Records
---
Amino acid sequence: MPLLEIKNLKLDFIAGDKSLRAVDDVSITINAGETVCLVGESGCGKSVTALSIARLVPTPPARYVGGEILLNGRDVLKMSKTDLRGIRGGVVSYIFQDPSASLNPVFRIGNQIKESLKLHRPEKATDEEVIRLLKLVGIPAPESRIKDYPHQMSGGMQQRVMIAMALASEPKLLVADEPTTALDVTIQAQILDLLLDLKKRMGMSILLITHNLGIVGDMADRVAVMYAGQVVEMSPALDLLRRPLHPYTKALMNSVPKLSSNLQRLSAIPGNVPTLGNFPSGCRFYPRCPSAQPECANTMPQLVEVEPNRWVRCLYAKSL
Amino acid sequence: METSPQPSATEAIAKADLAIASPWQVFWRRLRRHRTAMFGAVILVILYLTALFAGFIAPYGYERQDRERFFHRPMALRFQGGLAVQQYEPAPGSSKYQAVKGEVQRIHFFVRGDKYNLFGFIPSTLHLFGSGDPKHPINLLGTDQYGRDIFSRLLYGSQISLSIGLIGIVLRFGLGMVMGGISGYFGGKIDSFIMRFCELIMSIPALYLIMSLRATFPANLSSTQVYLLIIAILSFIGWASSARVIRGMALSLRERQFVLAARTLGQRDRHVILKHILPGTFSYVIVAATLSVPYYILGEVVLSFLGVGIQEPDASWGIMLNAAQNPEYLTNYPWLLAPGVAIFITVLAFNFLGDGLRDAVDTKS
């Protein structure tokens, strides 16, 4: 049984009397010990999908319209509030993009980590355990750091504290929502190494949300590419990087600047991601797709397995 | 790994400075630099200390009447073989008093006098000062229409007038924070309901609301009951506006990532509101609370002035001013306005302090 199985998740945002589909028919599976990357442009539903794993999207304005989220075989969407509190932190923990915003500025970091311990392992809510966790995430001299306020630490250190908080409850799945976007490049590498190392040591699974394809190759076992609320391609990471099948994935990879080439201009995908409620009929990517066919405007493609373990949502996946 | 190898001297100092300063310490340091705020704070400390030790400092009990001396004028302190005041005697044929030439009344310290309970439960008869001679009492601020010592009554009255504000803001902001926090954090129907209720309360002119609320209770309540009633009524009216501001702050705070982070850890809503939303509103609450203390003091004054507050013979600044309603009294015996001066000083001190607090919590400057 996979650790997490999102099946045909559909989520609407209610705006006035309209309901806008933000997540449409998303299915993602994560096995124990696996790292899955969720890739896509801003506003394509990555974060909402990730927050849904612990049903953290506020309802209203959101509304779960359909699908299932099976965590350890139990449907999160049908859980009671008490059960939800148990899995939040207990089974799935989150870290976010901007660590300085994720820490409460008015409390010492030691106390914030202790809060997490109190909830899930109350017998371990001690200074010793906090220090052990800080050591685990590579904070030097943790004994003197537990009395620090968040503003006294650098961004990288703050993100390490966030990771310590997330790990305090010993979760099975760590959801990292663009954990390195707010950090500079050298620190990014350190944090990602730390995540990989901790994953091995603690036997967690990781769901890593990113729009940095460079990270994907280093971290991921499998990749799901999202566009306009849908998964458009899902496949093992290396296969996807070597030979992307969906035109959107190809376009994404073409927009990554390469040191080897002497291009004057970066290639970009023309146009913008359609905003919620303004999705085109048929394939959602066809207005921007370089290989669009007339049929694309009329028929919504389904996610199909075109090669073993490689799922693509494109009418012409095989012919392109 | 992430620290720069050699921080400059000024950086190091700034770091050391930050390292020891919790937000409260920073706040306190900024407050101490604010001259007028500290001045206000000192005045308030003195006022509250004298209120606490009112029985000891006041030479007479608040009920003690001297039927020989109605509307006695204030007696100035002078130095003549020790601290003393001029002796007075009733002028024959009129209700005035005249100084007895050459006679002074020495002030004695730590004399025995009227019974009182220090802090409400330690019975004592020891007073800080007194004349030691019942025929020649010391009325530093004169006496009122019943021959009661205004200075003593002012001190006893401050117990009510000053404490009413403190208890009042605890109630008001306690309620305001809970309701505002819930309203802002949950939003939706709960928010609409609480906010419409606040607006309902705020839309009624305060004085009529006060009077009608007071009228729902029997008229012949004891002063203690009235005291509690005044606090309850004023807080019931006041919490609505505080709740609205706190709700607005909660609305913005709940979108902060640390609130989401707390929820991802599985924190209860109650805990998130108490620990992560409400501390963010303290900067407003501290300032607003300080600035709204005068509202309670004046509220008590208004109610007592209108005759629905504290009842005679108990002392409060409001009931004392009640006597000054009569214009004839006012022109002939202006010392009856002493509680007005006390109110003025107190309100001013609270506003000074509130101003300083506002600057101290304002991190933008």
---
Amino acid sequence: MDYEIVVGLEVHAELNTRSKIYCDCKNAFGLEVNTQVCPICMGMPGTLPTLNEKVVEYAIKMGHALGCTINNVCKQDRKNYFYPDLPKAYQISQAEVPLCQNGKLEVMLDDGTMKTIGVTRIHIEEDAGKLLHDDSFSGSLVDLNRCGVPLIEIVSEPDMRSSAEAKAYLETIKSILQYINISDCKMQEGSIRCDVNVSVRPKGSDKFGTRCEMKNVNSFSAAVRGIEYEAKRQIEILENGGTVTQETRRWDDVKGMSISMRSKEDAQDYRYFPEPDLLTIVVDENKVKELKDSLPELPNEKLKRYVQTMGLSRVDASLIVENLDRAALMDACVEIGKGSPKSIAKWILADISKYMNDTGKSILDTPLTAARLCDLVAEIEKGTISNSAGKTVFEAIIAEDKEVAEIIAEKGLSQNSDTSALEAIAKEVLAANEKSINDYKNGKTNALGYLVGQCMKASKGKANPGLMKEIVTRLVNE
Amino acid sequence: MNIDIKHIAKLSRLRIEDDKIEKFEKDMQSIVNMVEQMPDIDDTLTLDVNNPMKLREDVEVTDKYTREQLMKNAPQVQAGCLVVPKIVD
Amino acid sequence: MELYEKSAFELSEMLKAKECSAAEITDSVFGRIGKTEASVEAYVTVCEESAREQAKKVDEMIAEGKQLHPLAGIPIGIKDNISTKGILTTCSSKMLYNYVPPFNATVMNKVNGAEMVVTGKLNMDEFAMGSSTETSYFKKTKNPHDLTRIPGGSSGGSAAAVASGEAIVALGSDTGGSIRQPSAYCGVVGLKPTYGSVSRFGLVAFASSLDQIGPVGRTVKDVAMLQSLICGHDRMDATSKDIAYPDYAANLKNDVKGLKIGIPDEYFGEGIDAEVKDAVMAAVKLLEKNGAEVKKISLPSTAYALNSYYIISSAEASSNLARFDGVRYGYRTENYDSLIDMYEKTRSEGFGDEVKRRIMLGTFVLSSGFYDAYYKKAKLMQKKISAEFSEAFADVDVIATPTVPSGAFKIGENMGDPLKMYATDICTVTINIAGLPAISVPCGKTANGMPIGMQLIGGHFREQTLLDTANAYETLVGGFGSIPKIV
């Protein structure tokens, strides 16, 4: 039987606010254990939370980016469970009424087609601390620095049908978080984590199968591996006449397998109830609108524009979109309207990216402005300079901070495209190389290249090579 | 309404000695009975928009406390961390 | 008359007139503690050394001619659930037997800022759960009017210390009557402020949506002075109300002409001792004779306030007390073989039975499948009760009721029966449910000589009206009497 995979994702993203969500401790990663804490985030008796306004704003921005309804009147709830990384023994989160809900996200798949994935909700909550395990020690160690780091949880509808769709969704979410600058998105620091819900069903069925939730998925590639493993596991069970049990599983990326953590029967009873230490969150409707208006063009929209209206390839387009500097340069060039977008894209992805990688510099730190890049591409397209001269111009812009025309003139890089002048040179050269003409006519096709080379040499390299080849070919065949 | 004292105790991370279970059950039961006398109210809970929460400005304050000050009350500390019994996932 | 017998206001005036020193006041109070504490047992921690140092500092400031707060140099006792930096804060629980907060509650910053003299930390029911101070892990505080009787609770230490002269004033906390009920039993004045008027930051939470810190004193004026000091918006407490708060003490009046007093039938029914009803009605009559207008009112849902209160307070408590797990502070069991074992043993050994009962009740009402039937229903009842009060306050300025149904009972009398114990809160819990302010003032004694309390309830943030009314009554009866002899 053919099966269809059904995937839903819960993405947790740490927000890059200055302070934590409920206290004024610094929100930072990688500091010495238990040095970024205070009585509030340590859950000392008598302490109270105060909600960071930026957390609300950032979450609303994300809500707008994912086309959500914003619940500008909402509250927070306590999720109760005991664990050493959760000092208060409850996490302040949102249950019934999230800040944002009912959104959707359009993502581009590898083949360039678009797919819309529903976004159930986005809510705000606090992160927990970390447990450190040291084999040389008989206990576990608790570092509370991460307690109270602000998180948004983005819950999708079970709308994805393959690991590739899940990956495209995750990458788009990450890219949006970066575009609206609300998360550092450092996967290795765990600033984006996800829980994956997977089920399978016979192709064509409109009923969902029993789902399993996979926790501890720490990278997008792990999500892909986890989904594929889990789908295969479930299909095998069904093929053998078994039934899938609803449970929570832990993904072990090193071993490449998921392990059962707890079944539905042992499901935790979180005893949610409204957080009595906080009042109703009421965001002014003008503020909600203002946040919407502040959003830039989002990466998924940009990608669609690059591919569908500018004709870039899916791969080139996403390589530009995924880097904010590249995308900004691309858009500035398109705005100027000189040079074809495809050529500009090639320059951005080849020479410019190579230079950035080699030097570790940002595009913004060099004298290469969008206007100069447009000039450069336009001169090449017009045939004023050759491609290789273009590279010289590029290097000179960066080294000397000069305009393209100035560099071409100074370095004498413009190529001769005057047909009659080139014909005169060619005739002179051919007259002196009758042997080669005969060789050519006798079938030695190499000879043509030699002749063109001699002509180029005679022009001191200034001749437009394409045009010169055309002229020489015509003359020897006359 | 019967109350499963052992289940509730487990959720509460409490252990009730066997000889006290009956007494707890009786006490809880009488409280629950009292509570159940409440009439049903045909109403819904709404959020209080007239008393909105003032949010905190996003400013970080560092060096408010030393780690030693904050860990002074902890029963067991090792390498700047709190210590709990080994957790096996 | 000894200095410890005087009111905070009198002592303040004496200090200003240089008729006594802060050191002498502190000396007098500690002399009294030395004599009576062994029998009253109001304190968990006595801070004699730091108190004497503070008094000396105040005297130096006076000598330097510094402008001081009226309460500077006045000895104050603090309920042991209010965080005091560097001073044990136990909540009268084994769970926090060794806990020393690294920070001060906002009210402590105010108390210290006013240069008051902190005498120590006062006994209470464990985590403020109880009505007699008998659930304290450390000791049983006695009623200064009869040492065989309970002082009430949970702020039993606060009321007993003030009543016995072991402190001039005190801070208590009130979740369902915990300031007013012991104040009534001990014959002192206790104010439960409007929810949101005093910062809860640093108050170890019992039920966050109901808890409120408030003052206890021997005169209405002292209570007004202390309330003026501790109230106000605090950005550390999101539930604290950002409005302008008057200086209650400076504005204090004693005129009740035209004041409309509501008398709700529901608070004078079955379960309230006749002598208590009579005493409260006599007090109301006295106010009426002096110009107040008395009106019958109805608060029909009062009968369900206790039900609603036990659900809401226990639900919040079950969550608030989950943090006591032996990891970051407080008690940890000695032998354990796993994390869960450590949690369960620590919590079972660290908490007393009353606390466990409330945690379990709270866990139960929030647990999957029961939330709507219990918690949601209780919240709806809360809404209804609040609406009834709002309606009542459209017609009257204050509502007068008994504070407690009877005089203080014997130690041990109600310990076996939680429901009987809970019933002593029947007149007070409603006020917390509605978030209103209420004050308890002494209004006579029972046949066996125990104080009776009258509760005056006001509209939200109408503390001034309550204090004015209480002050008028105090003036009319010529004061609330002297400190009892303790033998």
